[in-house]
Hints:
The protein has 311 residues and is of the alpha/beta class. The protein is built from 11 helices and 12 strands. α8 crosses α10. The radius of gyration is 22 Å and the shape is globular. Bound molecules: adenosine-5'-triphosphate and magnesium ion (MG). It is a peripheral membrane protein.
Amino acid sequence: MTYTDSRGAAAPEDAPPLIxxxxxxxxxxxxxxxxxxxxxxxxxxHALLGPNGAGKTTFVSILSTLIPRxxxxxxxxxxxxxxxxxxxxxxxxxxxxxxxxxxxxxGEENMQLMGRLFGLSRSRARERSEALLxxxxxxxxxxxxxxxxxxGMRRKxxxxxxxxxxxxxxFLDEPTTGLDTRSRQALWDEIQALADQGTSVFLxxxxxxxxxxxxxQVLVLHGGRIIASGTAxxxxxxxxxxxIELRDDAGHVCEEIPTGGxxxxxxxxLHGVAESRPGMxxxxxxxxxxxxxxxxxxxxxxxxxxxxxxx
Length: 311
Ligand SMILES: Nc1ncnc2c1ncn2[C@@H]1O[C@H](COP(=O)(O)OP(=O)(O)OP(=O)(O)O)[C@@H](O)[C@H]1O
Ligand SMILES: [Mg+2]
């Protein structure tokens, strides 16, 4: 097998895929969460996209050695995450959806404690801790109790802890859920920098934009299996079509009209607009990932009706 990784470097001929899964099944009780899931991924950054309850955490937990599968073949860096879990645990790192740093300790103490747990010497643990805290902009907060950190700072610390052992593959389960736009952007920058240095990343997200910005490859999880995969651009192309945006004088979008994408189709819509609203400004754009999800699954990516009903 030949592939190039996300930075364009050719991988060795015999390098195993980053993640290789065939016919994976997993149920929680009587609820089948993953159903005949199959995929193969080269090194790089991959985003698993799915709404609440789609099975993202279940899948990441299987890949990262935490829980066994019911059936199917799974290889991560060429290893079986259940049978070879001790070996695999030395190569990967997981920052879970609900991460486990000790709130009563400072950032620095958490880092050094984890360094020691990962088997580093005291001085090496201190060195890694200082370097990673600096990298994530946490140096000035290093001596504060984590209990006093903001959500964004905590998330950065969670990820920094996961990087202590210098993993080849980092799993991030919803790394930016609940963060504001600025903290999210800051974390995206860090994840991108990691990827540029050659660390592979498998992240889960409910944010289409996050998958679009970060991932070489986007996987859409729905009904227990991967229903679509490819670059964000490929997914958009797969759905086809173009959306016509109508803007007012101030440039605000007043209406979005989906079209099949063929020139006749677009022309017909534009003709109608020219007659009924002659002053409007028009942009023709590719579908957003939101629209792609809607098209692929017949439902919006998050259960917004339920969320609205609850609020
Ligand atoms: N330990 C468990 N026991 C029973 N059911 C579970 C367990 N873990 C998950 N489930 C169920 O499996 C399904 C998938 O859950 P999972 O946590 O993998 O979804 P998710 O995509 O990570 O969702 P979210 O976006 O909310 O984190 C859900 O219906 C959930 O209730
Ligand atoms: Mg989850």
